[in-house]
Amino acid sequence: MAATAATRAPKLQVAVEKPTPYTFDLGLLLANDANPAKIASSAAGKDAHEADLAAVARDGAQALVNQLLTTCRIDRTTNDGVLLNLPPVATALPREKPVPEPKPPTKWEQFAARKGIKPKTREQRRNLQYNKETNEWERKWGYKGANRSAAETDWLVEVKTSQYEKDAELAAKGHSYRGEGRRERKERIKRNERKMRKNQERATRS
């Protein structure tokens, strides 16, 4: 134990004194040191170089902690430490990238603004609707969605007399009347996606 105590690093001073005082931006936890740093060159040895860098970093951190504890209002003290209320940020930091420009309104957004149409609420966007026939809640789209026609889901599909010729044509092409509803629904989805892309392109050009 005696050897361990002898090799323990000496306790450093809490007060940090510099010829030119630090300036602080406590909102950013920033301490500016205007004093020239005395850092040993790498030629003097890696240990000396690293020790000087660590000393400069330690002094800056200690000065920042001192300023925080003497300036900021203490919110509360917990078992993990002290919680402080930081002041507003005073240093204007430059952005890495320019401020993003607002996206131009799409054709639908322009139409909605003219007609006074408001966006749907969260409740209105829910993928559920009440079926009065079955007295149950069902999905509007997706798995077992209500947008699927009976020709896609029912095990038995009634084919009207006027559909016989169409069913024969589908069978000749390798399709079926049952799959025709799914194909039409997929085509509607693709048409809507094409219209959406055109609206976005039109908005970016305007």
From TrEMBL:
Swiss-Prot/TrEMBL keywords: Nucleus, Ribosome biogenesis
Keyword rRNA-binding found: no
Extent of Basic and acidic residues compositional bias: 164-187
Main location: nucleus
Chain segments carrying region Disordered: 164-206
Species this chain originates from: Sporothrix curviconia
Name the UniProt record assigns to this protein: Ribosome biogenesis regulatory protein
Subcellular location: Nucleus
Family label: Belongs to the RRS1 family.
Function, in words: Involved in ribosomal large subunit assembly.
Biased composition (Basic residues): 188-197
